[in-house]
Automatic annotation (TrEMBL):
It is a multi-pass membrane protein. This is Probable membrane transporter protein. InterPro entries: TM_pro_TauE-like (IPR002781), TSUP (IPR052017). GO terms for cellular component: plasma membrane. The keyword Membrane applies. Belongs to the 4-toluene sulfonate uptake permease (TSUP) (TC 2.A.102) family. It is found in: Cell membrane. PANTHER family: MEMBRANE TRANSPORTER PROTEIN YFCA-RELATED, TRANSMEMBRANE PROTEIN YFCA. Keywords: Cell membrane, Membrane, Transmembrane, Transmembrane helix, Transport. The chain crosses the membrane at residues 31-53, 74-96, 102-122, 143-168, 188-216, 237-255. The keyword Metal-binding does not apply.
Length: 256
C-alpha cells in the first residue's frame, strides 16, 4: 500500500467513525476505499469490521452520559445483538466468497435506500407519536424489538453498512425514549456486534492488518468528532456523500 493509499484509508476511517457515531453507514466510506486499494471483497469486509471496532468504542464513550440509566435495557438488547452478530460473522465465513461478491451490491443498495429514507422515517415516527402518544407502547420494545435487532445484528455481523440506521429505526419506533439516548444505545450495540464479529475474523479469517489498523486509527478519531461536533454537520450533505460513495462501491463491485 502506497503512502497515498494509506492516507486515503485513514481518511475514510475518520469519515466512517464520524458518521457511525451520528447515525451509521460508515462502512460505505471505508469499504469502497479498501476495494480501490486492491483488497479482495471478503478481506476488505473483514479488515474493515476489525478496524471499526475502536471507532464504535470511541463513539460510545462520547455518548456515555446518554447511556446512564439504561443498564438493564443495554444488557437485554446487547445479548440479542451478540447472538445476531455472531451468526452474521459465521455466515460470512461459511458462504463462498463468490456469494459475498454477488450479495454485497444488493446489500449496499438496500443500505443506500435506508440512508435516503431515514429522514422520512424519522418524520413519520414523530407524527405517529404525536397522534397516538405513548399509550400502548411497551417501554422495553417487547418481542418485536428483540426479533428485529436479532436480524439487524446478523446483517451487521455479515456486512455492516447502514446497520446503525436499522437500529435507530427499530428502537425509535418501539422504544419510549429520547432519540439521543437511543443513539447512545445504538453505538453500544454496534460495539458488541462488530466486536464479536472481529473476534471471529481474527481467529479464522485472513486480515489485512495494515488496512485494519489504518481504519482503526481513523475511526477512533472520527468517533470523537461524531460525538462532539458531528450533530452540527448538515444531515443532507452527509447523506449525499454516503450515497455517492455507495454508488461508486456498487459500480466497482459489478465491474470486478
Amino acid at each position: 500500500m502506497s503512502i497515498w493509499e494509506a492516507l486515503a484509508v485513514f481518511a475514510a476511517g475518520i469519515g466512517a467513525g464520524t458518521i457511525n457515531t451520528i447515525v451509521g453507514s460508515g462502512t460505505l466510506f471505508t469499504f469502497p476505499v479498501l476495494l480501490a486499494v486492491g483488497l479482495p471483497p471478503v478481506t476488505a469486509n473483514v479488515s474493515n469490521t476489525i478496524g471499526l471496532v475502536t471507532g464504535n468504542i470511541s463513539g460510545t464513550l462520547g455518548y456515555r452520559r446518554e447511556l446512564r440509566g439504561q443498564r438493564a435495557r443495554a444488557v437485554r438488547l446487547g445479548l440479542t445483538a451478540l447472538v445476531g452478530g455472531l451468526a452474521g460473522a459465521v455466515l460470512l465465513l461459511a458462504l463462498p466468497s463468490k456469494a459475498f461478491d454477488a450479495i454485497v451490491p444488493a446489500l449496499i443498495g438496500i443500505a443506500l435506500v435506508l440512508v435516503v429514507l431515514q429522514p422520512r422515517l424519522a418524520k413519520a415516527l414523530a407524527r405517529r407519536r404525536e397522534r397516538n402518544g405513548t399509550e400502548g407502547e411497551r417501554s422495553d420494545g417487547g418481542p418485536a424489538l428483540l426479533t428485529g435487532l436479532l436480524f439487524a445484528s446478523a446483517y451487521g455481523g455479515y456486512f455492516g453498512a447502514a446497520q446503525g440506521v436499522l437500529y435507530l429505526s427499530l428502537m425509535g419506533l418501539l422504544l419510549r425514549e429520547d432519540l439521543q439516548r437511543i443513539n447512545a444505545l445504538k453505538n453500544l450495540l454496534a460495539v458488541i456486534v462488530n466486536g464479536v464479529a472481529a473476534l471471529v475474523f481474527v481467529c479464522v479469517a485472513h486480515v489485512d492488518w495494515t488496512a485494519a489498523l489504518l481504519v482503526a486509527a481513523g475511526s477512533t478519531l472520527g468517533g470523537q468528532i461524531g460525538a462532539k461536533v458531528g450533530r452540527r454537520l448538515s444531515p443532507t450533505a452527509l447523506r449525499g456523500v454516503i450515497v455517492a460513495v455507495g454508488v461508486v462501491a456498487i459500480v466497482q463491485m459489478l465491474l470486478r
